[in-house]
Amino acid sequence: MSAPRPTTRQRSSSSISISNAIQDIRCAYLTRLAAILTSPSDIPQPGQIHTNPASKRKTKSQDRLPPSRGFLIDLFTMQWMIHPSPVTSLKMIVITLVAWLNWRVFTPDAPNPLSPLLFLSNPVPRHADDPLSTTRYAKSYYDILFVLFYVIVFSFLRQFITLYILHPFAVKIGTKPAKIPRFLEQAYTFLYFLSAGSIGVWVMYQEPTWWYRTEHFWLEYPHWDMKYHIKLYYLLQTSYWLQQMLVLILRLEKPRKDFNELVMHHIVTLWLILWSYLINLSMIGNAIFVTMDVSDIFLALAKCYNYVQPGHWLGNVIFGFFIIVWTYMRHWLNLRILYSVYTQFTLIPLENRRWWTPDGVWMVGWMQWQIFLPILALQLLNLFWYFLIWRILIRALVYNHLADERSDDEEDEGDEVKKE
């Protein structure tokens, strides 16, 4: 009889132990996450001891952001999305870049399987009758990989910018400690929408739809072969909004009173982005992006200033200018887009008003309402916030106090200015 092999049995036992440990950690994390997502608002319960709000806020934040348990566990449990350090997400990015570079160096003649994560896929050959035309890109299933990878990139950027750039800046300019978390959220929002809004305006400037010549949403349909910058802009916007939805679900930001409306806004936004991309309506998608992003620049700026200098006259001026921009961008221009969908849909060439996947056309009659209704839902949400904005303005004029209608007084201690 052969002697037993304890080494193999020991190795097998160790593997099982590690596997069980990871499973236990994952179950504990998911249980904690479920408790966070289903927890009621911070209304004192019968018999609950009232503690200092600041200490309660610190404890809740620590509960919501558990410490890292190591790269692999953070990776498989999605804890990299909620851990405040950007190290894990940075490792994921660096590993991908190094693997892509190794493949390129050692097997340069073979297609690199990691390229769809980093670069746009599915270039379309140039037209034979126009050799000077730029390379265009069609949709591809690889776009999903691109979007998911840049969700990780945006997670890293958010964590890195807020922790290592904006937080020291907030302390330096004298922001009150209780307001620093909100300041960081809005300062990052300001930086993103300043970039996205500027790029969106530049993208529109290159197209016949420049400044809402709405007939061109339809006359050149389908827009299935996109210029490089249009496809890149669209997919990066998708990554950002998907990452923001995860931020909302994981409660990385303290929820406010209109949490449900904000979730609905993100759902409608993602629906519009994905559906317009799938049915080749990138021009109307770009137009809607611009109306939302440009107005958000001034919303975030007004909030940031009010966190630092509450009640200052310049904050009121910025807020007043924001209302003008919001009214024009989110209502006047969005209503023009709605009117175009309702009245100009028939400008689509007759041969393209059919459902035929090989040609990239999807514009059968009922699709008009599939386009119209989500934009209308977005407008209704904007009107809800518009009502709150005007209530804030009226109270500011009467009481000389600019206060956020959405704020939870106990948690935010006077956060100002509405959050879209």
Automatic annotation (TrEMBL):
Residues 178-398 form the TLC domain. Residues 42-54 have a biased composition (Polar residues). Residues 42-66 are annotated as: Disordered. Its main location: endoplasmic reticulum. It is a multi-pass membrane protein. SMART domains: TLC (SM00724). The keyword Transferase applies. InterPro entries: Lag1/Lac1-like, TLC-dom. GO terms for cellular component: endoplasmic reticulum membrane. Keywords: Endoplasmic reticulum, Glycoprotein, Membrane, Transferase, Transmembrane, Transmembrane helix. It is found in: Endoplasmic reticulum membrane. GO terms for biological process: ceramide biosynthetic process. One of its GO terms (molecular function) is sphingosine N-acyltransferase activity. The chain crosses the membrane at residues 144-166, 187-205, 232-250, 262-278, 313-329, 371-393. It comes from the Eukaryota. PANTHER family: CERAMIDE SYNTHASE LAC1-RELATED (PTHR12560:SF11), LONGEVITY ASSURANCE FACTOR 1 LAG1 (PTHR12560). Belongs to the sphingosine N-acyltransferase family. This is TLC domain-containing protein. The lineage of its organism: Eukaryota, Fungi, Dikarya, Basidiomycota, Wallemiomycotina.
